[in-house]
Design a protein that fits this description.
PUA domain-like, 2 domains, five-stranded mixed β-sheet, alpha+beta
């Protein structure tokens, strides 16, 4: 269970990774815990910058985790954090936003790619996400201290203006990439020093000092303690994603064979290095719904790993589709294992979940099988711009009509 800091203690609290900072109980904006925890940051919006002028003292990036059109994401295995800017509605130029978040991103990433000395002028970024508690719906969780950019990512890819369409109007927003640094606790003394002088001499986290002086990212990387995902971990995490999966299942439930091509497309959406060579015919495929290759080498000197893919359009359960859950079991997984003898790995895509026993047998015996469950399908679609049931329905109707 996460450590919880009560609202009354926030003014003196350190920032502890994954700790929860409770909001107040008055029922108004004064309940916001971030403004109490970090004075000068304000109590609204995703961008909350402290300090006057263009050079900020520090910046809070807040995410609700529920914006399906702009899905902020933290990869715990690499420390990479993807955050979208604040131009989220048509009718505004990329940098014409009320809180100036996109202007701030442009300035910070310009400094990142300027002279090495300019890194000292970049403010620390403090990441929070919405985390309602019984005490307050405004409570938040601290995700970490972040620096702009990511190791190995070129300057052309860490801040990118992406296009969206809303009500037939096109507009742009930023997609920014940060690295969460290996700083378990951000000391209150350092935050106070930043606020007072902007150049605190003591208590600076070593990972931040190393990044400023050398440009070296020491990321906070956390490997999972288990590789057997529960049913809950394999199902959609938000109401919007539940609606997305429901839309997919309803479209294919009476024609599961048609789901095969869609499952192959989902694997391609997950990774552009996936090449689908053939969607096999249901009557003669011997159980393999698709075969393909995964590009490992350079495009001019390719090395491929071959795979077999199976698709299972099974009921994801009563909370999603009103029908009993139909898990992918040992027998289905065993068939896939038997069919990858002449290929390097297998892929199983399902609208449901993988049963625990089947999951354990595959992982314990180290069979090279990729599992993509119902929640993963919703995540992949959202990441690729299909963040609402309506957008998914249009995709299915246009490209996978029955």
């Amino acid at each position: 269970m996460a450590r919880i800091f009560p609202f009354a203690d926030l003014g003196n609290a350190d920032l502890v990774v994954d700790a929860v900072y409770e909001g107040g109980a008055r029922g108004n904006a004064a309940d916001d815990p971030i403004s109490r925890l970090l004075p000068g940051t304000g109590n609204q919006g995703g961008f909350r910058a402290a300090g006057r002028g263009d050079d900020k003292t520090f910046v809070v990036l807040y995410t609700s985790g529920e914006d399906s059109d702009w899905p902020d994401q933290l990869d715990l295995s690499t420390g990479q954090f993807v955050y979208f800017g604040d131009n989220k509605t048509p009718g505004h130029e990329l940098h014409d936003t009320q809180r100036g978040g996109n202007r701030l991103l442009r300035r910070v990433f310009d400094k990142l790619h300027a002279a090495a000395s300019a890194r000292a002028e970049i403010p620390p970024f403090l990441l929070f996400r919405r985390y309602p508690t019984r005490q307050s719906s405004r409570s938040v969780q601290f995700l970490g201290l972040a620096a702009p950019g990511f190791r190995g990512l070129p300057a052309t890819a860490d801040l990118v203006a992406v296009w969206k369409t809303s009500e037939r109007q096109r507009f742009q927003n930023y997609r920014a990439v940060f690295t969460v640094l290996d700083v378990p606790v951000v000391p209150r003394a350092w935050l106070n020093g930043l606020a007072d002088s902007g150049h605190p001499m003591n208590s600076t986290p070593p990972a931040w000092s190393e990044w400023v002086s050398l440009g070296r990212y020491k990321a906070l990387v956390s490997e999972p303690t288990t590789i057997i995902r529960s049913d809950q971990a394999q199902t959609p995490s938000t109401p919007a994603k539940v609606g997305i999966l429901r839309t997919v299942w309803r479209h294919f439930k009476d024609a599961p064979v048609a789901f095969e091509a869609f499952a192959a497309r989902i694997f391609q959406m997950h990774d552009p290095r996936v090449i689908i060579d053939e969607i096999t015919r249901a009557s003669v495929d011997g159980g393999r719904d698709a075969v393909g290759r995964y590009l490992l080498g350079l495009s001019g000197d390719p090395v491929y790993a071959e795979f077999s893919l199976e698709a299972k359009c099974y009921s994801p359960g009563p909370d999603i589709v009103g029908a009993p859950i139909n898990r992918v079991g040992v027998s289905e997984v065993a068939r896939l294992i038997s069919r990858i003898r002449h290929r390097q790995f297998g892929v199983l895509v399902t609208t449901s979940v993988i049963a625990r026993q089947a999951y354990e047998e595959v992982r314990d015996d180290r069979h090279p099988i990729v599992f993509i469950s119902g929640g993963d399908i919703a995540d992949i679609l959202t990441t690729n711009g299909y963040g609402t049931p309506a957008l998914v329905a249009a995709l299915l109707e246009n490209e996978f009509s029955l």
